[in-house]
Amino acid sequence: MKLLNVVSRLCENKNLDISTAEYNDVIHGRASIDNSIMPQRLNDTPIKPYEAKWGEIQDTFTQNTAITRTFEFANFKTLHYFINETLKYQEKMQHHAQITINHYEVTIILQTKDIEEVTEIDLNMAEFLDEIYKDTQSFYPTQ
Questions:
Q1: Which of 32, 68, 128, 136 could form a disulfide with 78 if both were Cys (CB 3.0 to 4.6 A apart)?
Q2: What pTM did the predictor assign?
């Protein structure tokens, strides 16, 4: 878990330059990552954190939670690809989302229905859907 925190802070500070001694000090709690160890240098990092646009919703009566996101598409081709890949993944995983299509918008709601909460399976599916959506953004716009 400590390594994940270090990587997260490195990305947050936009700087991947850290010596082995500094890294070991951070891992073993002798130092923390701050701007004195790692000054901020914008646009230096080869990786950029991706912020998912998933939101949490809660049933006001049962207090059960789910996550949701609306994806917007420029044309039918990208929408069709996204839906097909989503349906294939659902069948493969035997885990099904609530899908609503409204013109070129697709709203997905994820929740493990057996326990009516968000689980690791839902988060994995959300990550998969984000990747598929990202793929569609590189398609050429055609009708």
A1: 136
A2: 0.62
